[in-house]
């Protein structure tokens, strides 16, 4: 198992500056004025993880992709803790002669096998769904 180290430094109010294990800084703000909220970062982390997988798999499949966008829609519980209950990822993939079956397989592989964030959130009871749109370049 790999050990990772990160750090958060309180700035003021509910604003923190985080340093990731790779040394990148991010502003985190519960009030959403100086940065994204912690829950927004979880949503972006899921989208980033899944998008990374889709791009990697599509490139290995020799698909000529020009742009990949992941639009996320999430629902949170009303009570405390206000966890995500449902998250939908909509991939918009632009490219030349994109094969629909290759894209569908890439998204499925990400969801079922490769995306650690998806696996972790699903294990915690979050219902994660996906769909896609292909745009010709």
TrEMBL record:
Highest taxon of the lineage: Bacteria
Gene3D superfamilies linked: 2.20.25.10, 3.30.300.20
SUPFAM superfamilies: OsmC-like
InterPro entries linked: KH_dom-like_a/b, OsmC/Ohr_fam, OsmC/Ohrsf
Database matches in Pfam families: OsmC (PF02566)
Protein name as it appears in the record: Putative redox protein
């Amino acid at each position: 198992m790999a050990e990772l180290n990160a750090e958060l430094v309180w700035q003021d109010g509910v604003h923190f500056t985080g340093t990731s294990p790779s040394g990148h800084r991010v502003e985190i703000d519960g009030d959403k004025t100086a940065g994204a909220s912690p829950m927004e970062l979880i949503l972006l982390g899921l989208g980033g993880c899944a998008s990374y997988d889709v791009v990697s798999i599509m490139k290995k499949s020799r698909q000529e992709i020009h742009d990949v966008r992941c639009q996320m829609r999430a629902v949170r519980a009303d009570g405390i803790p206000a966890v995500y209950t449902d998250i939908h990822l909509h991939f918009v993939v632009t490219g030349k002669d994109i094969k629909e079956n290759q894209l569908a397989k890439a998204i499925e592989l990400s969801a079922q096998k490769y995306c650690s964030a998806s696996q972790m959130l699903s294990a915690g009871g979050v219902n994660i769904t996906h769909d896609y749109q292909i745009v010709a370049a």
